[in-house]
Structures are given as C-alpha cells and as structure tokens.
Amino acid sequence: MIAIDIGVRSVRAVWVSLRGNAPVVTRVESFALPLDEEEPHKLISSWIDKLGLAKHFCAIALPGSQAVFQSGRIMHSDPRTPEQIAAMDIAQFSEMAGDAMLHDVFAFEPPFELGVRRYIMSMARPAVLSKAVQEAGLNHIRPADLIVAPVALHNVMEAFAGDHDEPWCYANIGHTQTEVAVGLKTGLLFARSIPVGGKLFTEAVSQTTGLTPVQAEVRKHADCGLRETDACFESLRGAADRWLSQFNACMGVYRSQFQDRKFNTNRLVITGAGAQLKGFKEYLASKMAIPVMTSAELPNVPEAFRPHIGVYDLAFGLALTAMRAGTTYLSLLPEALKDEVVFREKKPWWIVAAVLLTGSMALYSATGVYLLQRDGSQLEEERDLLRKREQIDKRIQEIKGLGSQMLTNSVPLSGLLMNGPLAREVLSLVASTVDPNDWITLFCDEKIYNPKEQNVETTAATPAAAVRNPFSLFRTIRPSSKPAAPAADKKEGAVKKDMVDPLATVFIVEGYTSNPSLKSVREMIERLKTSPEVARVDLRSDDQVLSPTGIPELEAEKVPNFRRFVIQIEVKRP
Fold this sequence. Notes:
Elements: E1 2-6, E2 10-19, E3 22-32, H1 40-51, E4 57-62, E5 68-75, H2 82-97, E6 102-108, E7 116-124, H3 126-138, E8 142-148, H4 149-161, E9 168-173, E10 178-183, E11 188-194, H5 198-209, H6 213-222, H7 233-257, E12 268-271, H8 280-287, E13 292-294, H9 313-322, H10 335-374, H11 376-433, E14 439-445, E15 504-513, H12 519-529, E16 534-545, H13 552-557, E17 562-572
Parallel strand pairs: 1-4, 4-8, 9-12, 12-13
Antiparallel strand pairs: 1-2, 2-3, 5-7, 6-7, 9-10, 10-11, 14-15, 15-17, 16-17
C-alpha cells in the first residue's frame, strides 16, 4: 500500500507491505513545498510523476477540520447494530447540516467497561469528499482510501505505544493545524482538529527577529527553542501557551463526553514537525499534569522506521488504516470509488477465473456433444419402448375403468339381494307393531337414508325443534346431514352408546303420531325389542309438526298437531 500525506509545507510518501501480520516500511519519499506557492498541485503532480505513481491507487488523508466525529456507547442488551445507531445519528446531523452526510462507524469493547461497547462515527459533507477526490486527481493520484487524519494518527501511535490500559492522547502538530486523537489499544475514543500548529511558532520567531517567514522557519529549527538558553524563548513560550490553551479547550470537550475517571488520559504523545521544536516537550510537561513524550520515545518503534519517526508518522498511519492493519478502521471513501478499488484488487483473479471458466465451458460443451452423438441411438430405442409401454398402460387403465364401472353398477343389486328378504321381514314386524292411529311414511336402509332436506332449505336448530311448513303437513325438516359426534364417556373403559354392531343391519322407520306424548311410539319400540331378530331399537329424533298457517282451506279443517318420529332399528344378520 502506498500512502501520501499532503501537507502545507511538505508532501510525504510511504510504501508499506505486510510480512506475515507485521507492516514493514519499504520506501519513503518527501518533497518540500514553498510557502508562497499559489498552485501547489503542479509541483506535487510533477513530483508524483517523477516517482512513477501517476494514476496509482494511494491512501490519502482528509484533514480532521473537514470531518465531524461522534462518540457513544452501546449496551449489550441493545439489539441494534452500530450501523443502525449511526444511521439514526447521521439523520439528525444531516438535518442540521442541510445535506446528506457521508459517514462510517467503528465499535469496540473497552477493557474496563464490561457489558458496554463504545463506537465512534466519522462524517463529512459530500462536497468536502468530492473536493478531496478532485484534488487527488489534480495531483495525478487515485484514492485507494480516504482516511481522516486523527484516525491514521491513532493507528500508528497505538502500533508503536505497546500495551496500556488507560487512554492516551496523541497530537500531530502540523504547520497550520494539530490533529488530536484519544484512544485505547482496542479503539479510538475521541478525535478533533485544532486550528493552530507550527506556523504559530514561525510567526513568533518572525516577529521577534524581523525575518521573513521562510527565514524564520529555518531559524526556528536552528537555534530557537523554549529553553532559557535558546533564542526567542520568551516569544516561543507565549506561542506555546496559545497552543496549549487551544489544546486544553479541545480536551475539555473530551472530558465533557467522557466524565468517568477511568477515561482520564494519563499520557500525551506529540509528533509531527512542530513537535521537534527544542524544549517544547519539557515545557508542555511542566504545564500539564500528565507525562509528555515524543513518538520517537515509544517502545515498539521498528528500528528500520526509527530514522523516519516523527516525520512520516501520519503517512505510515494512513497505510496501516488502508490495509486494515490498525486498531480502528474508519473510511470516508465514496462507494463508487470503493467499488473501483475492489475491482482493481480483484481484477487479476477475475481474469484467471474467467480464463478457467471459459476453458471449462469449452471442455464441457465438447464432452456434451460427444455424449449426445454416442447416446442418440440408445435414446431412440428407449423412446420406442416408452411408446409401447404407454399403449399397454392405456389399455390397462381402460380395462380397470370397465371393471370399476361393473363393480359400481353391481352395488345396488348386491344390496337388494343381501338385504331384500331381511327388509321384508323387518317391514312386516314394523307393520304388526305400529299403533293403528299412527302412520309410517318411510322405511329404508340407513345407508340410503337421505339426511338432507328436500324442498325445504331450512334446518332445525335442535333435534326437537318444530317447523311450520305451509306447503304440506308431512313435509318437514329431516335430521342434519352431519350428526353431532357422541361425547366421550368420562369413565375409563366405557362403551360408546351409539356404536353399531358391524354384524348387524340398521333400518330407519319414519312416521307421524297424533299422540303428543309419543306414548304409542314408545309402546311400538318396546314391542319391537321383544323380537329376537332385533338387536337394538332407538328413537332417533322426534319433531312437532304444527298445523299450517296461511292456507284458509287447511285452517278451516282444523288439522290437529302431529309429531314426527324417526326410529333406528338394528337387526341381527341371519
């Protein structure tokens, strides 16, 4: 990965590769920019072309002043993902900004907060990102990733810092601004950019000595400093106080967001060209309540990178972040450019896959043609056999249909032959036991008993319900086609009352009686029970038939009220 850090005073390029899981810097280049240059893009693009990086994908930085950071925490009981929470926050920021902010979010678990996840979101306006991409094009480079500077600073410092449980603060002092990041080994907590940097000290030297800004810049690194033995120390201390006031204001914002004492920073690490001012580290340590050190004093700085520490830190952090080898990954590269980067990374593999796929398809096609030609004759033979089998199957189905039709037609005749004599005997028995004042209107086998109403669409709500039928005195509601299922006996082993013996034949007798108490019907049932051929006799239903209304002729005759009864007779088979 190639990372380019473009500042106001210089441009730095770093080549980083991974050896195992360890990032290694293989090459560094820098280019100084004049202070009075109005179009630095021409100089930068010429330098890029000289390095052979024209149109190459490189990781570039977005200044922290052009982005906004939002921190928060997520409880483990919260079912939302960090992306869902960020979407809710970004909607509020977009409404306040009046523009659709582009964003990215990263979540991690602090070591001293159990059951809590911390997240940090970076966001920027689309116009800012478009301008950064356009400037990259003017510099003859293509962005492989767009990283906000504090994120890159945190990743490179954590790579050099070693293990620590408390939050550390990192400050990269550039020419016009200072990038500030506060974080842990597991992730970034806070990021800001303050609008003061090394230019503040250059102006102090220029005002004290009367030199031009270019000469004051050279003099500042020669014999000036904040120690009493250094030149211009009084004016530089005043500038350092102004820088420190801006830094303390920034840290005040951090302390307002992280009020718990376990989030207090216990160390400040400074880097960048501004951090190389003589006596600046010691002066900050005397003014602040925490230790101050430079990035060169961190324990895990690789020996190969130590000559470049403090100058190429931010560029190295950009490469680490773009390679996802850092602690925190936040990218503001637009989605269209991300797709282009992915295509560039996967293009060689896609070409190889396409070649293999084409060869495989050609091989499969040739094999398929050969198999089709070889098996053509066998397929025709199988088709002829299939046609013959279809004809045989069709003939079998026709014979089965004829046999089924014959069996269906023989069922009524079989029933007549089997039950005819028995039905005659039972009908004779019913005729001999019926009361002379009662009428029998129907006698049939239970299997052919029609349970549906004929000519009347109304069904009785209960078995004993009475219905007036103005058309006929004997045309009433028949039993329901779906008799209610018998209730199960609560006692174990009880026999169902309505269970019919499978070796018996059941007949239905339907008739009318003028006796409202059904006394004659009950006597008829008792007489039927005395017959040895009868296994069981039950009164299946009884309905009251009222005299018709609405027909003057029948009302004048004063037809008495009748009761219709249905008797079920179970007869033993001989």
